[in-house]
């Protein structure tokens, strides 16, 4: 066993190529100079994906002769500055130091490597300005993205006539990009400057670039206010991202003529306006993503390309029906978001032909009619529409559903008992603000993946099911390595977001939805006591049972709910004392037990006292020093206000007599 793998390698004096990527190589102590390999044989070195540090590698590396041509040390733990001695490796043509923790500036000596064709320093913590690169005339690939570079973008980049790939995204550059930055880039195919908010563009109106790009990514730059005319000359585009770029304009018809090869188009979060033309026949690729969201497009919804995989037209001003969508056949859509528009009409059997659809978001419109029946649908957002009547059995065929939001509609009837047996993968279920009545079916307790249950603001009656302890996702801690968490993350990552009532306010959860565990049964007609079994849900972070007709005593085992951040039991008929275990809920940010018939002493706890006396008010037989003190303070405040009013009246009266 070699305790120092460098010592073993140093014995291979004829070694020419060394690939040891992703081998879990540990950092070793630096070798003394006498043990360095001064061989001229090694040409290619790949130690990427290990745990190597700078103190171990760089001294060893620079002992080689200048014959070393390829170095890949990406995805390690290299720290500190890039040594200036790297400029002595004059034969170097390939250098990748991506995904490390390197700091400081790029050494000027790096610009002297005339044979260097590939340079990747991305995902580090490098600062300063990019040095002059005119001598690196062989560069074809330059990745400096995801660092902290600032200042101007060196115009010497424009002289790199062989450059094909340029990525300066996610930095802090402050510059006006002009034609001189690109004057000699005849071979450029890939250009990314995204997320440099202080970069703007100033090209002449008739500028004809020397290149034909396949990928343009300028998200978060100051591209606007007009659509860049030079993009109309690019006829080989596969990727175009000009989202969040300050454009206030219409989409030119010429754009759609350039789209035949596009597989990714993102113009979201701008101020594009106007009516969209029919662009469905313009795209020829089979894997296509189109994002036109968060703009001001209006008019009827255009025909959409049936070969698209993901379509997002949300947060615009489209109006009218979607019958033109219903006429499409053999669609490849997997993700369709039309939420937050002015669309209306009945869905009927609109999506019967979209058999691959997995994410359907039609929220915040005025749709009505039948629910879609799609076998592979995993996420359904229909909140804030005009759906009425009972939950139709058409939804019963959607057995893959993991996310259902039907809140803020006009649905009525009983909650179907088949929900618990059909949607076995369900993670999120919201029927909030409808007109459901009847009892909560006990079959819901079969939903072992359920993490958010919201039946608030309905007319549901009966008792809280005792079997809620079978909602095992609310019992178990999140296991980040488990298949369950992997499943939840796949459902929520990138595509999923939800509006959840949290601490009496609506919050949008995007990246952390899989961590929310909540039960909200408030504002119904529930009766009976709180079943003791509910205290088995030890990872629950929010419980709202307020505004019902619940009674009995609070569960003595409530102390088990140690993860609770929000507990609202107000406006019920609970009696008896407050369990001492409430004082052990040290994660509580909001507690409301007001408007009940609780009695006795409030448990003494510094944390409870910080929650305020309003959490316990209107419980006539409840006693606590800080509550009494609060009442006294309120009475004193009222007296002070009355005295001020009397003094003001007398002052005004006295003033009148003086005159």
TrEMBL record:
<dbReference type="GO" id="GO:0006952">
    <property type="term" value="P:defense response"/>
</dbReference>
<dbReference type="InterPro" id="IPR046956">
    <property type="entry name" value="RLP23-like"/>
</dbReference>
<keyword id="KW-0677">Repeat</keyword>
<feature type="domain" description="Disease resistance R13L4/SHOC-2-like LRR">
    <location>
        <begin position="81"/>
        <end position="243"/>
    </location>
</feature>
<dbReference type="Pfam" id="PF23598">
    <property type="entry name" value="LRR_14"/>
</dbReference>
<keyword id="KW-0325">Glycoprotein</keyword>
<dbReference type="GO" id="GO:0005886">
    <property type="term" value="C:plasma membrane"/>
</dbReference>
<keyword id="KW-0433">Leucine-rich repeat</keyword>
<keyword id="KW-0812">Transmembrane</keyword>
<keyword id="KW-1133">Transmembrane helix</keyword>
<keyword id="KW-0472">Membrane</keyword>
<keyword id="KW-0732">Signal</keyword>
<dbReference type="InterPro" id="IPR001611">
    <property type="entry name" value="Leu-rich_rpt"/>
</dbReference>
<keyword id="KW-1003">Cell membrane</keyword>
<comment type="similarity">
    <text>Belongs to the RLP family.</text>
</comment>
<dbReference type="InterPro" id="IPR032675">
    <property type="entry name" value="LRR_dom_sf"/>
</dbReference>
<dbReference type="Pfam" id="PF00560">
    <property type="entry name" value="LRR_1"/>
</dbReference>
<protein>
    <submittedName>
        <fullName>Disease resistance family protein/LRR family protein</fullName>
    </submittedName>
</protein>
<dbReference type="GO" id="GO:0051707">
    <property type="term" value="P:response to other organism"/>
</dbReference>
<dbReference type="Pfam" id="PF13855">
    <property type="entry name" value="LRR_8"/>
</dbReference>
<dbReference type="InterPro" id="IPR055414">
    <property type="entry name" value="LRR_R13L4/SHOC2-like"/>
</dbReference>
<dbReference type="InterPro" id="IPR003591">
    <property type="entry name" value="Leu-rich_rpt_typical-subtyp"/>
</dbReference>
